């Protein structure tokens, strides 16, 4: 990466314009090309070791969205936003999952799987330590939040409104989405679309601590 793609002013304008939308226009779809780019932001999310311990469920079915809404503090974004994404974390990452990832590296970078043996051991050693303390699910969930940041920032750059929604009952989501018995579990969701002008949050000033309070140079 050498040349800037946007100016500092454009970047900050998008970040200042982004707000957590509470009301979405039910009849305003995100254009296909815009949505395809936003799906790609999820694929491109970075993760520790590059393991990508996640899956993203885009809930297209209105019926499923209606069933999920009562377990989402009845937030209207669940049914009204153009798109609704459920972010799933991997509960366990075992040697076979690591092998699957290393096969992908070998394929993409055209190297032999054997050349990755040292890397494999380092990952398994780290995951082993996490497994001993039952932390793999938490660790994967933390990685997932990187995707939330990337997705919502990218959406703002494309003029798409979003709302991260953690106010859900993940166990109910897992049941409705039939995730029990799979390696994945629900962590949070994000609604995306176009906010309604009647949403007071669209025009309320954003509340942030001043830079001098949250950032220090040493
Ligand atoms: C992890 C996370 C979970 C959130 N969950 C909800 C939610 O369930 N419902 C909601 O209306 N907003 C939710 N929000 C939005 C926050 O309330 C909002 O980002 C925060 O108040 C700052 O406002 P702003 O994003 O408009 O600047 C969530 C935000 C994050 C980052």
Give the SSE layout.
Blueprint: H1 8-17, H2 32-43, E1 54-58, H3 62-68, H4 77-80, E2 83-90, H5 95-109, H6 117-132, H7 136-157, E3 161-165, H8 170-176, E4 184-193, H9 211-214
Antiparallel strand pairs: 1-2, 2-4, 3-4
The structure holds flavin mononucleotide.
Distance between the termini: 28 Å
What is the makeup of the main sheet? 4 strands, antiparallel
Mean pLDDT reading: 95
Provide the gyration radius in Å.
19 Å
User: Beta-sheet strand percentage?
Assistant: 5-15%
Structural class: alpha+beta
Q: Helices and strands, in N-to-C order? A: HHEHHEHHHEHEH
Number of helices: 9
**Name of the CATH architecture of one domain:** 3-Layer(aba) Sandwich
Q: How many strand units?
A: 4
Helix content: 40-55%
CATH superfamily of one domain: NADH Oxidase
Ions, cofactors, ligands: which are bound? flavin mononucleotide
Shape: globular
CATH level-1 class of one domain: Alpha Beta
The low-pLDDT segments are none
How is this structure best summarized?
The chain has 218 residues and is an alpha+beta fold. The chain has helices at 8-17, 32-43, 62-68, 77-80, 95-109, 117-132, 136-157, 170-176, 211-214, and strands at 54-58, 83-90, 161-165, 184-193. Strands 1-2-4-3 form a 4-stranded antiparallel sheet, with helices on both faces.
Description:
- The protein has 218 residues and is an alpha+beta fold.
- The chain has a domain at 8-47 and 54-92 and 137-194: 3-Layer(aba) Sandwich (NADH Oxidase), CATH 3.40.109.10.
- It contains 9 helices and 4 strands.
- Strands 1-2-4-3 form a 4-stranded antiparallel beta sheet, with helices on both faces.
- Helix 2 (32-43) packs antiparallel against helix 7.
- The mean pLDDT is 95.
- Bound molecules: flavin mononucleotide (FMN).
- The site of flavin mononucleotide (FMN) has 12 residues, from strand 3.
- The site of flavin mononucleotide has 12 residues, from strand 3.
